[in-house]
From TrEMBL, chain A:
Pfam families to which the protein is assigned, alphabetical: DUF742 (PF05331)
Protein name: DUF742 domain-containing protein
Highest taxon above the source species: Bacteria
InterPro entries for the chain: DUF742
From TrEMBL, chain B:
MF annotations from Gene Ontology: ATP binding; GTP binding; hydrolase activity
Name of the molecule in the record: ATP-binding protein
Source organism (scientific name): Nocardioides luteus
Top-level taxon of the source organism: Bacteria
Alphabetized InterPro entries for the sequence: Gliding_Motility_GTPase (IPR052705), Gpn (IPR004130), P-loop_NTPase (IPR027417)
Family in the record: Belongs to the GPN-loop GTPase family.
Pfam families: ATP_bind_1
């Protein structure tokens, strides 16, 4: 069992003591990688490596990454931000500033209407 | 170590949107999410160990938390560059603080009710009326396929503002769920400025 799955290891240890993220990462914020670098991956801590490996599958939300990698939401947020600052990953800001942007809402409504 | 930053392929800027599915215990939240989701229900075991942290990420207090929480979310790819996420809210009162985290950045909320246990969804209605800026609608889950109480009676019992849309849904049915989600976002459109 790795540390990331051990409830007895304080999250503090996994993140090198950092407790805050700079950006608000929503549970649905998407993370992606433009390319995969195996050599860089080998130097990551096990938790960061799991996240990095998982992102190879395509853009995924913070919640999916947390759930699939077995890393709690809070730790996932800190580690993803680190991986983004070292350019391993990109945090997709999306095309719209607000969740209420009518262009976004219209697109989602149109997409849902075609689901039926 | 510097990571080589030359992009092999430009990452498509995929956008995500989120709708929150709230409501009391057993009203059909998971069923509704699963009816449209393209990913299987996520195994929440690992997530559960420390999910309490999300309230106050990584603080000492939360590090002691071994709270478990069952959470479901689903994903719908609407276009190559557009994903919709649905998040069910955990029903038990002790998880309410987590709702803030789940609701942040949501485009809308769907509060599900079961007319056989309307009171189970009171807290969810209260939350979106008083404690959240996320526009919401209420959907009656038609468990037996038909409406047992008129929508007017349901509205009265919930003390629901007349401006809050009240619709019916069959949570097991993909098309019906999609329709309810459309109603939810249409309400957001009506209640927010064009360039919010
Ligand atoms: N007949 C019928 N059964 C339903 C419908 N929706 C949900 N159910 C059933 O009702 C039960 C509860 O549904 P869930 O989707 O698990 O409800 P939930 O809101 O996620 O419940 P909790 O997460 O425990 O609060 C399950 O056994 C479902 O199969 C429906 O529209 N019709
Ligand atoms: Mg459920």
């Amino acid at each position: 069992m790795s540390v990331g799955q051990n409830p007895w290891v304080r999250p503090y240890v996994l993140t090198g003591g950092r407790t805050k993220t700079k950006h608000q990462l929503y549970v649905h914020t998407l993370v992606s990688a433009a390319h995969f670098d195996a050599r860089a991956a080998a130097q990551l801590t096990p938790e960061s490596r799991r996240l990095y490996d998982r992102v190879r599958l395509g853009p995924q939300s913070v919640a999916e990454l947390s759930a699939h990698c077995g890393i709690s939401l809070g730790v996932t947020r800190v580690l993803l931000e680190d991986l983004a600052s070292t350019e391993h990953l990109q945090i997709n800001d999306g095309a719209y500033d607000s969740p209420f942007d009518h262009r976004l809402l219209k697109r989602v409504i149109d997409g849902l209407s075609e689901l039926g | 170590m510097a990571f080589p930053s030359s992009a092999d392929r430009p990452a498509l800027n995929v956008t995500s949107a989120k709708i929150v599915v709230a409501g009391g215990f057993g009203v059909g939240k998971s069923t509704l999410v699963a009816s449209v989701s393209e990913i299987p229900p996520v195994n929440t075991e690992a997530w559960m160990t420390q999910a309490g942290e999300s309230v106050d990420p990584l603080s000492d207090a939360s590090a002691k938390t071994t709270t478990t929480v069952a959470m479901d979310f689903g994903r719908v790819t609407l276009a190559p560059d557009l994903l919709l996420y649905l998040f069910g809210t955990p029903g038990q009162p002790r998880f309410w603080p987590m709702w803030d985290d789940l609701c942040r950045g949501a485009s809308g909320a769907l509060v599900l009710v079961d007319t056989r246990q309307l009171d189970a969804s009171f807290p969810a209605v209260n939350y979106f009326e008083n404690d959240s800026d996320v526009p919401f609608i209420v959907a009656v889950n038609l468990f037996d396929g038909k409406l047992t109480h008129s929508l007017e009676k349901v509205r009265d019992a919930l003390c629901l503002d007349e401006r809050t849309p009240l619709v019916t849904v069959d949570a097991r049915d993909r098309r019906s769920t999609a329709k309810a989600l459309v109603a939810c976002l249409s309400h957001t459109m009506k209640t927010t400025p064009t360039r919010a």
